[in-house]
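Ticket #4471: structure output looks truncated?

Reporter: J.K.
Steps to reproduce: submitted the chain below (348 residues) through the standard prediction queue, then opened the result file.
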Amino acid sequence: MLHSHPTNASLLELHLMGIPGLQHLHYWIAIPFCIMYLITLAGNSTLLCVIKAEPSLHLPMFLFLSMLAVIDLVMSTSITPKMLGIFWFHFTAISLDACLTQMYFVHAFSVMESGVLVAMTFDRYMAICNPLRYLSILTSPVVAAIGLATLLRAVVFMSPLTVQIRHLPLCSPAVVDHSYCEHMAVLKLSCGDAAFSNTYSLSISTYVGSFDSLLIALSYALILRAVLSLSSPQARKKAFSTCGSHVCVMALFYIPGLLSMYMERYHQELPPHVQVLLADIYLLIPPAFNPLIYGIKTKQIRDGARRMISRRRPVAGGIGPGLKGTGLGLMKTKSISQNGQNLCWTLE
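Returned output as attached by the reporter:
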């Protein structure tokens, strides 16, 4: 007797619903989503071009920023074009293989982004609290090793999820109640025992979110202690302003993602569109805001962009001399000796 449920071998196409309950608003919701995607493309691409073109920006801080820009571009591009196709043109169909590929990219690059945010926080801690050893510790091989470690962690953590769901039997109708192939939304189509995949997904998400955010909080606590010891009120105000904007961006990355996951798992009575919108915000807003917060608000990036534009645009009478870097490239530093300890503030 034949198996009564279709399996992955026969269920070759899925359909993404979009935002359940808000299909009548899809056309209008797609407009801010499209704007955020365009900002993501323009901002992160510009950031990469400026950092590549300026040798003075080939420092650990900006190498980590380049990694973050690449991750944001890949993560946004893996979901947003398909999402806009659903909202504007009702292109809901997606092959099973494409869905699993999208799922892998979304979740793996989310783990990578979390790891890079931790590395960037450690970079700022070293630059502020231990400036004399900054470049001797964070050498190019060390930065490359950190980047490779974040990649390997994402591959090791996320590969079992994709392999597991690829071998689960899926039931018809093949409709995913989401705007992209989110793991738990696809897992609802399973006819088999999905306990392992469900538990593993929850455990990994909790571990990554909790452990990484704990490391970030610890680093910022140490940075805060160093900032409070600065004698200049203006320096403290600038430090709090910069760190505050960075913490807000990180909160936008961690909080919606964890809320979406736990509501999907434990609070099925909540409106489905709330869960989906939180998951969309988690993937769309940070990539659009990261180049603005980490790039435009950073003086070295602004100066590098101006010099890059000046070199491509001939000016009558020549171009004036550019800024020259100090001990940390173009990083404007302020060292203060207090209780025998040097402090260095590098955030502009």
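Triage note (M.O.): checked the attachment and the full token line is present. Residues 76 and 283 are 7 Å apart (CA to CA).
Status: closed, working as intended.
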